[in-house]
Design a protein that fits this description.
Blueprint (H helix, E strand, L loop, with lengths): L3 H21 L6 H15 L15 H21 L10 H16 L2 H12 L6 H17 L12 H21 L14 H20 L10 H5 L6 H14 L4 H4 L1 E2 L2 E5 H9 L4 H8 L3 H22 L4
Antiparallel strand pairs: 1-2
Length: about 325
């Protein structure tokens, strides 16, 4: 079955929405308000693609610094934006991702990229930690928004995007293979990104020469790429609903709020999947949203292994 990631994605969206509702129900100046905002920020941070620890290793010092900067920046941004957010216009996941992306660009300055590069140079060749940090560096370079876009004026917009994407991939591969050659003391500005962008500039031209090779008869257009089938959000909801409704082992039905067997995880999850808002479920069951939130969070943590076991891809 292919619905494992879709089901988990749905759960993550629900958790994010509940955190948002909770945060919005308190005065942000109070201790409870600050705690609710912190939980919302932590939920948004689950979507990050860097500052991930590797199994068996704690955060490196530079990872820890980036994570703390990111956490502080997001808390500030969320505090300012939460009252302006309109769920009718923007899905909660899109809103959270926008704030996360914005915070990453602010926090990933040249100094942080340089520190990551130097940290990698200290690690033994072919070690798991070195490979992990190289992946973090590549992602950090992309997320920083500091890659240049050289020679854009020389080509059509569509052709340039093809050249550029290929050149970026080769540049990042170059960074991984040659990270030990990077000298943080070299150059007038001593900026890490200058070392990266110097190679990117050259590779755009190199890719242009290769695309001019007569063996390359035809390049796909951006329209062709956009026509690649995208995941169907309708199937996401339906596959998740069918799995929870079938309730193998009756675990979802037997997990309910204390003394309220009518308020089971199965009932609440199916209500959400039928389109009811958290406020409507709260009104229908006569249970406050924070109580629903706490219960739903516990259930998601408890049933995650079951989702992973039963819905693992064939």
């Amino acid at each position: 079955m292919s619905c494992l990631p879709l089901t988990l994605l749905w759960i993550m969206n629900e958790q994010l929405e509940l955190r948002f509702i909770n945060a919005g129900s308190y005065n942000p100046q109070t201790q409870q308000g600050q705690e609710a905002l912190t939980l919302l920020v932590e939920e948004i941070l689950r979507g990050r693609t860097i500052c991930r620890p590797i199994s068996g290793h704690p955060f490196s010092e530079v990872q820890k610094e980036i994570y703390q900067r990111l956490q502080a920046r997001l808390l500030s941004d969320v505090s300012q934006e939460i009252s302006r957010y309109n769920p009718q216009r923007t899905p909660i996941k899109v809103w959270g991702n926008h704030l996360l992306h914005q915070a990453l660009r602010e926090c990933l300055q040249d100094e942080q990229l340089k520190q990551l590069a130097v940290e990698i140079q200290k690690q033994p060749s072919n070690s798991a930690l070195r490979r992990h940090l190289l992946g973090e560096l590549v992602e950090a370079i992309r997320l920083s928004g500091k890659l240049c876009r050289p020679h854009r004026e020389k080509f059509s917009a569509e052709f340039y995007e093809l050249l550029y994407e290929e050149a970026v991939i080769r540049t990042l591969a170059y960074v991984c293979k040659n990270i030990d050659n990077y000298d943080p003391e070299r150059g007038q500005t001593q900026k890490f990104i200058n070392w990266v962008n110097f190679r990117l500039d050259k590779l755009v031209i190199e890719c242009r020469r290769e695309f001019s090779n007569p063996i390359v008869e035809e390049l796909p257009s951006l329209a062709d790429l956009e026509n690649i089938a995208q995941p169907d959000s309708t199937s996401l909801v339906e596959e998740t609903r069918q799995y929870i409704e079938s309730d193998p082992g009756k675990n979802f039905e037997q997990e309910y709020i204390r003394n309220r067997p009518d308020a089971s995880f199965k009932t609440i999850a199916l209500a959400r999947l039928s389109g009811q808002s958290w406020e409507e479920i709260s009104s229908s069951l006569g249970i406050k949203v924070p109580t629903l939130s706490s219960f739903f969070q516990r259930c998601c943590s408890k049933f995650r292994p079951q989702f992973q076991k039963d819905l693992a891809p064939d």
